[in-house]
Amino acid sequence: MCLARKVKELAGYYPCVMVTGARQVGKSTLLREVLPGGTKYVTLDDYVEADRAQQNPQDFLERHGWPLCIDEVQYAPELLRAIKMRVDENRQPGMYWLTGSQRFHMMKGVTESLAGRIGIVELMSLSQQEAQGNGAKAAPFDPEHPTAGMNAAAICSLSSLYERIWRGGYPMLAQYPTMPVQDFFSSYLQTYIERDVQSLSQVGNKSAFVKFMRSAALRTGQQLVYSDLARDAEVSPKTAAAWVSILVASGIISLLEPYHANGLKRLTKSPKLYFLDTGLCCWLAGCETADDLLHSQLSGAMLETWVYGQLLRSYANAGISPRLYYFRDLNGAEVDFLLEKKQCLYPMEVKQSSHPTIRDLKAVSKIPTGHCTLKPGLVFCTATSTAPMGQDAMAIPISAL
Predict the structure, then answer these.
(1) In sequence order, what are the residues at sequence separation of 6 or more whose Cβ sits closer than 8 angstroms to the Cβ of residue 380?
(2) What domains can be seen in the chain, in order of their start residue?
């Protein structure tokens, strides 16, 4: 996994390294793969250890020593200040290795207590490349050479692609291909609500929160409208905004900001909401099979959500935060994704078509470039091979991303 190299790199500079991300995406597994020999491991999923850490964090750290890996550190935020004191006394690289899956309040504690002392990486569920066993060779998506990192062996039929989308990328589902998706996500949601969400004062009604998540799943790939989500869950728009923040902080959804040549205007339009794992999104949306998904009204939005997730993972696994946006003007012209890199703009469209044409990129001409150079467009599609489209544009098979 590319991210393992990034974690090792950060541990060579910082006294603390933290891996964050949603539940069950493999944070503990990742750290166990890179921990130096002799590093002690303790999980705060253990109620006894969590209580000890909460009651007397200094004694907890004294008893375990260092180097120490603390899994699910969010259950004892008091540890962060105690870790700061230990780090300031010794200041050596790789003293503490941390994971956390509930970042709503935890990251505030991290930034306040460990600023300048900690390297942070975010782990998502498996990318398509990782699920296909090609994760170690995967590289960040390069729009200048879009075929360079593609896995041609992963190219598949439309039905097989939607099977991948429907199952998503949680490691357990990849490890056990015959495991019932419904059982996994039902258990996942229950654990997420009981362990991560219920403790937050912003969530007093669990059933309303679940209804809210289902409403958000049905709107993946759409502009975020708080009033619509609030109406479905029968809560106020203010509550809906707070709950969106929880889903973002939990690694469940991501918000894609709009692009404008004037950076200040990027803040004046609504972001688009995307689920970070399409499997969870499909389950919440009520798609019982991959075939149901393929023939549903969500098929296009879920395909776009899948591509967004693959792009994000290709960068996140290399420790890179891409300048990725979407474009939409007041007349409705829209480009799904716009990557800004080295003063160049790379427009990218997602089409549920095996034979896209240059007309699929007609909205690209509406993009205000400002100081940037507009590059030829890319169309991610359901074709089984790359193909030129004219005007230096190119069609890219989604299943090879």
Answers:
(1) 307, 348, 349, 350, 351, 396, 397, 398, 401
(2) 2-122 (3.40.50.300), 128-400 (no CATH)
